Amino acid sequence: MARFAFLFWGVLAMAMVACRTNEAPDAQVDDMKITAQVKEKLASDLGVSTMTNVSVNSTNGVVTLSGQVNTAEKKSRAGQIAGAVPKVVRVINALQVAPPQP
Fold first, then answer.
1. Of 24, 39, 83, 95, whose CA is between 20 and 30 Å from 9?
2. CA–CA separation, 63 vs 77, rounded Å?
3. pTM reported for the whole predicted model
């Protein structure tokens, strides 16, 4: 019985660490889908080479874009693309505009 209790508490502890407690499980799945869709659309529209410097995160439908792009137009377009993905509540466009390094 003690062995079962130890196993139970161990599994429970791992589950608690692995879960994001600020979101319900269905919201976590939605956020994963949102992130994947935003990345796919950004790569398609802005180019895969641009995406190497861009990070996309989604929590509770709020998408945060961070990293670097080489023009203000790409920054603006990235925000528009992210905002057009279904279930996106808001976009935080924290992309920085920096010319490419030689």
1. 24
2. 14
3. 0.72
The CATH number of whichever domain residue 45 belongs to comes to 3.30.1340.30
Q: Which two tokens stand for residue 90?
A: 């808001």
Share of the chain above pLDDT 70, in %: 70
Determine the structural domain holding residue 86 and report its residue range: 23-97
Instruction: Enumerate residues 6+ apart whose C-beta is below 8 A from 58.
Output: 31, 32, 34, 35, 38, 64, 88
9-53 pLDDT, tens digit per residue, is 555 455 544 455 555 665 566 899 999 999 999 999 988 887 888
Strand order in the sheet with 90-97: 54-59, 62-69, 90-97
